[in-house]
Design a protein that fits this description.
It is a single chain. By secondary structure, the chain is of the alpha+beta class. It has two domains: 142 residues, Jelly Rolls; 74 residues, Winged helix-like DNA-binding domain superfamily/Winged helix DNA-binding domain (Arc Repressor Mutant, subunit A). The chain contains nine helices and eleven strands.
């Protein structure tokens, strides 16, 4: 079973990297390991939120389920990212559910430890606010895309955001299954697959399972206009 040096891991997170060694070690007693297998629930919508989570490895899905059983994926959290910071400060129940998409390992930092770090270092509070602002900006941008952009534009945007356009052979491997990505883009799985097929027919991409190669980046950008 993989272990982690908690002080070292915290120190290398953007949110904590400016804290002193003393401040980092002060967080350790408030930091706990959370391990889970694929499909395991981390917390349900409505559960109390008394801390934030850092992903050591694995991916986490944040989603909302309707009374009819359908699910909307709000965000997919990658290794090195964090989640639940905002709700932690509100003192309200979690507005979404969190679930491991694969075997994963998280660190949960209790709110008490975060509050102590803020009291000792105002700059930490500014970095935390900056991180939350960036996430809010991303969510607003997503809503704008769902409202304004066509299905094809959303798919092209996702592809271009997840590759290095300067690479000689820009390509990506979908990190999760197509159904989850489709939900994240506010599309049905059928529409997502149809858009990929349309781009493939236009010789702009090739699709092999989860592997997608971008054959014509300029053409993709033109198609998204």
């Amino acid at each position: 079973m993989q272990t982690v040096d908690i002080p070292s891991f915290l120190r290398h997170q953007p949110l904590f990297q400016q804290l002193s060694s003393e401040q980092i070690h002060a967080l350790v007693p408030f930091t706990h390991e959370v391990r889970g297998g694929k499909g395991q629930i981390i917390f349900q919508k409505g559960d109390p939120c008394d801390g934030m989570f850092l992903v050591v490895y694995g991916r986490v899905k944040l989603a909302i389920s309707s009374s009819q059983g359908s699910e909307k994926v709000m965000e997919i959290i990658q290794p090195g990212q964090s989640f639940a910071e905002a709700v932690m400060f509100l003192g309200r129940p979690c507005p979404v559910m969190a679930q491991f998409l694969e075997d994963g390992f998280l660190l949960k930092v209790e709110a008490q430890g975060i509050n102590q770090a803020i009291e000792k270092d105002p700059a930490f509070a500014r970095r935390l606010l900056a991180g939350l602002s960036m996430r809010l900006h991303g969510l607003v941008r997503d809503v704008e895309r769902y409202t304004i952009e066509t299905s094809l534009q959303r798919v092209i945007g996702y592809l271009l955001q997840n590759v290095d356009p300067l690479s000689a052979r820009p390509q990506l491997t979908l990190p999760v299954n197509k159904n989850l990505i489709a939900s994240r883009l506010n599309l049905t799985p059928e529409t997502f697959s149809r858009m990929l097929h349309q781009l493939s027919e236009a010789n702009l991409i090739t699709v092999t399972g989860r592997d997608i190669q971008l054959l014509d980046v300029a053409g993709l950008r033109q198609s998204a206009v």
